[in-house]
Each structure stands twice: as structure tokens, then as C-alpha cells.
């Protein structure tokens, strides 16, 4: 008997009291057997829908045979290096028309086309449990015909590879290859969703290898996917070998993937409809990751953080660490950077304009300028001497620097230059 969430158990008890059996089936069985907490539950019963809706008045009617109960809550991450997630379950209560074995034919794969009665008795007309033990994905019905009507089904296949490490039986593999052009131009939103899910699974490396082996990279990064340079191919192989050693953070793993494609980075990134926040982080990764790598002292690091903020610094820092893991690089620079950051935080060294002991009003009151925008500009310039030496974060010292920067363009221009005697 698979483990049921409390919400599902309560639903089943309600049907038991009403004298109706319930069979749960589909991907909830697959996910539970594979050790995951299933979100979507299909519950089959002979109970008529008018009775179902009387028992669950808060349910949403989906056609004549289905009522949906949504107990989910979206939990948005508070940090870019964490993943958003749903908590709870969605239960679709479906009134049977005929035997449950007939109903199970609607599922795409044998690992989905199995069910379990509320008493634990199994329903498995297509041998799905045995296929799951072998981690073999097999179709229910004519997969080639299904794929021609629904090309995005291939991306569901690849999601199973990334999440659970399934191998494909010959029929599925051949159908995807023979319909590759259709699969490549499937709905981009669906492709992005399935790709992101698969690349954050436990078998992301296997998924990436299969994606390339099936010739489907073009569906993710555009036509350039078929003409990757030798170094890009080598990096892709390395990524496929080692990505599973990194944490399963969606945005970070997307960064690892797109950074492989050096020549057409921005084109690849914009081929699928990424959300604005993802684009905001990923567009600059090609430039900002190397820049962070070469921040070799506290002054450079504080300047970097002051321009981007802690949230972005943490993202690019973790992305660099993940690259070190994937490409098996020396991490001495990373260790040194972590040590510098530790000192900066321990000493509460000023980093941002808000950390300065003066503000724009102080600059105006000192008679340096009467233009508020100019005062804000000078305040930004004052970060440079403070980043060099935190002792400079003193009122009279900062006002002296502000006067100098205001009077001399050379002082402004060369404020971060160290002159050698």
C-alpha cells in the first residue's frame, strides 16, 4: 500500500462512510512508488457526480464526470538559490463508466496505468509495476499515433527520464526519432516546463544525454543546437556527467546549461519563453560569473556586491561553485573569496550607499552642491574610498572626498586607481 497524504485519506474515509470504493491511479502512484510526495491524485469511484458534489460542495466541476478538490498552496522562495514549490494535493474525483481496467487505458504509459484500491489491492492490467522495477518506460496503446496528435508527449517522456532515470523502450525511442521535427516545434511553454522539471530531477545528467542523443537540443536553444562548437560539445558532455553532483535549484541548473553555449548564449537563452526574473539573472551570467571569479580582494568584492546586491551576488557565487563541481576545477579562488566575505561580514564593513555615515542631504548642507541628483551621484562615488579603507567612512573625511570629486573630473575618473611611486 502506498503512503497517502492526509487530505486523500480524509476524502477516502468520506467515500467509505457513504458506501463507495475508491481507486487512486495515474501519476500519483508512479511518484509515490518512486519515493516522491505526489501532488496530483486521480481518484476513481462509482459514486455519481451529483452525489460527489453534494459531499464536496467546495469542489470545482470539470465536465460531467470530474470534480476537482484543490488543497495546494504555492510557496514562493525567499531566496534565488531556493526553488519555488507547491505544498498539498490536488484531487480529481472521477466517476467510473465501466471497469477500472478500461479507465486505465487513458494513460500514456504503463507506469501510470495502474491503480490501488483504498484497501491496498492493486490494479495493474499492463504490468506497470514490473516496468517500474526495471525503470523501463513503455507505452499504453500506439505511441507513434499518439505522438503525431500530441507532439509534446515526447517532453513528458523526457521528464520521466530526468525525474526517475527511466530507459525508453524501443517503440517510444523510435517514435520520437521519426517524429523529431514535430517534437522540436511543440508548444514552447510546455517544452520549457518539462525541460526545467527534468533538469532539476535526480537523473538530470541522463536526461541531458538523451536530449542530445535524440537530436532535440534545437527545441531548447534554437537552430544553433545542431551546430555546437567542439568546445561546447565537450562542455555539454562534462555537464551531463556531473550535473547530478550539484544542488537541484532550477535557476542555477538552467544557468549551468545555458553557459555551455558560448557562441550563441543570448539567442539560446531567449529561444524559450523564460520569465522576467530568470532572464534578469541569466542574461548577465556570462559576464558577471567571470567578473566575480576575478574579484581577488575585499575592495573588488565590495564593489561587485554594491552594484548587484546580496541576492544576485549569492546567485552568481553559487553558480560559480556549481561550475567548479561540474568541470572539476580548482576551488582555491572560491575558498579565498569565501574567507574574504567572512571577514567583511564579521567586521560589518560598509558596502552600500546606505552604509555611509552621510547622505545626499549632508553633501548639500555642506555647500558642495545644491543639485540633489549631483549629490546622489557624489554619494555613489564615495563608496570607492570607503571600500578601499573602511576608516574613511567618517563624516569629515567623506565630505572632503566629495568636494574633491565635485571639483575635479580627474579625481572622479581615477578614484579607484592605485598610483605607484
What is the end-to-end distance? 79 Å
Q: Provide the CATH superfamily of the domain at 1-134.
A: Beta Polymerase, domain 2
Mean pLDDT over all positions: 93
The shape, in one word, is elongated
CA radius of gyration: 29 Å
Largest sheet: 7 strands, mixed
**Share of helix among residues?**
40-55%
Strand order, main sheet: write it out: 3-4-7-2-1-8-9
Beta content comes to: 5-15%
The CATH architecture of the domain at 1-134 comes to 2-Layer Sandwich
Overview of this protein structure:
The chain is α+β, with helices and mostly antiparallel strands and 421 residues long. Among the domains are: 1-134, Beta Polymerase, domain 2; 285-346, no CATH class; 353-413. Helix content is 53%, strand content 9%. The strands form 3 sheets. The protein has a 7-stranded mixed β-sheet. The chain has a two-stranded antiparallel sheet with strand order 5-6. A two-stranded parallel ribbon has the order 10-11. A hairpin with a 4-residue loop joins strand 8 and strand 9. Helix 7 packs parallel to helix 10 and helix 11 (204-213) packs antiparallel against helix 13 (230-242). The longest helix is centred in the last third of the chain and has 17 residues, at 310-326. It is elongated. The model has no long low-confidence stretch (mean pLDDT 93).
